[in-house]
Amino acid sequence: GCFLLMNTGETPVRSERGLISTVGFALRRPDNSEEVCYALEGSVFVAGAAIQWLRDELGLIPNAAASEQLARSVSDTAGAYLVPAFTGLGAPHWDQYARGTLVGLTRGCSRAHIVRAALESIAYQTLDVLRVMEADTGHRISQLRADGGASANDFLMQFQADILGAEVLRPAYVETTAFGAALLAGLSCGVWRSTAGLPSDPDAALFSPAIDPMHRERLIHGWQRALERSLGWAEN
């Protein structure tokens, strides 16, 4: 899966578009009062699992890491789009009847094009959630901070920046959830006296958009057409 959270500060934002309002974190202040920071959350059901599917069910790649080299071996997907709605679609669609689709195939499509389409599908699904977050909050994002196993894929991070039209920042230590829990424990135990003393990440990698905006819109339009074909499939 893929889980996106937008920090909304001390006031929870109630989504009108199917996102979840949740507690981002809570800290105990020196005066024993509590600082609570809220977030909007959107869940993508299938992200890295699509790459596992390519490996385990189709045998197109020997391991997840091989997907990057194969995706880079072609300049695009040759018009193919993969919508990995293998268990329906999560935010912002919430369609339990959606099913996976692979569309736009021609005789010239190879396994490299399909692998690239699978990686790109992660970025497109992320875009869908982030655009809803922007609509709910009225704020346009300038940077996405990515972590987790899939973020180690440089091709995916660059395509994510390209399709968002915004920077993507990846920390040197990609297991940010565990790292954040350790930092909160350290604050609680007095290892650090305040958040100002927490260690930074000077080795973070920054990915900036590098495609023409018109090309970006054409790619997104193709994704939306593919998405429409996956919706409600199991009902018919």
Tally of separate helices: 6
Q: What's the helix-strand series?
A: EEEHHEEHEHEHEH
Helix content: 25-40%
Average pLDDT works out at 94
Structural class determined from secondary elements: alpha+beta
Number of strands: 8
Main sheet, how many strands, which sense, barrel? 3 strands, antiparallel
Q: Over all CA atoms, what is the radius of gyration?
A: 19 Å
Task: Give the termini separation.
Answer: 26 Å
Could you please describe the fold and organization of this structure?
It contains 6 helices and 8 strands; from the N terminus they run E-E-E-H-H-E-E-H-E-H-E-H-E-H. With 236 residues, the protein is α+β, with helices and mostly antiparallel strands. A 3-stranded antiparallel β-sheet has the order 1-3-2. It has a 3-stranded mixed β-sheet with strand order 6-7-8, covered by helices on one side. It has a two-stranded antiparallel sheet with strand order 4-5. The longest helix has 27 residues, at 111-137.
Concise synopsis of the structure shown:
With 236 residues, the chain is of the alpha+beta class. The protein has helices spanning 48-56, 66-72, 111-137, 154-164, 176-189, 213-230, and strands at 2-9, 20-28, 34-44, 81-83, 101-103, 143-145, 167-170, 205-207.
Write a concise keyword list for the protein shown above:
236 residues, alpha+beta, 3-stranded mixed β-sheet
List the helices and strands and how they pair.
Blueprint: E1 2-9, E2 20-28, E3 34-44, H1 48-56, H2 66-72, E4 81-83, E5 101-103, H3 111-137, E6 143-145, H4 154-164, E7 167-170, H5 176-189, E8 205-207, H6 213-230
Parallel strand pairs: 6-7
Antiparallel strand pairs: 1-3, 2-3, 4-5, 7-8
Helix pairs in contact: 1-3, 2-3, 3-4
